[in-house]
Amino acid sequence: MSNHLKIPVSQLNLHKSKVATSSLGRDLSKIQTHISLLQEPNTFKNKVVGFGKYEVYNGGRTNERPLACIVTSPNIISWQMAEFSDADCVAIRTSWDGLGTVIFASV
Question: In the CATH scheme, what is the homologous superfamily, with its name and number, of domain 9-106?
Fold first, then answer.
């Protein structure tokens, strides 16, 4: 018997929209565990904004506007994979009880 785990994952291009980011942030608050792979997130001073308590992973230098990011709920054990992350793409490694490691990327 194989291990199965249902992980809610969404992928969305936010087109740098404050409204789309706000709507997604509000919807995510209704889900306990979630991973969002996002392109063109809303930013302020080159930081992804609008996700409150959620963990936001993005690559690139601090003076670069991130074009991709991954947002995870706080209960997910995850680490950014810096060797595969820059302003255009980001990768994270997650750890799940009974399942092991799962890697996610947003490009």
Answer: Endonuclease/exonuclease/phosphatase (3.60.10.10)
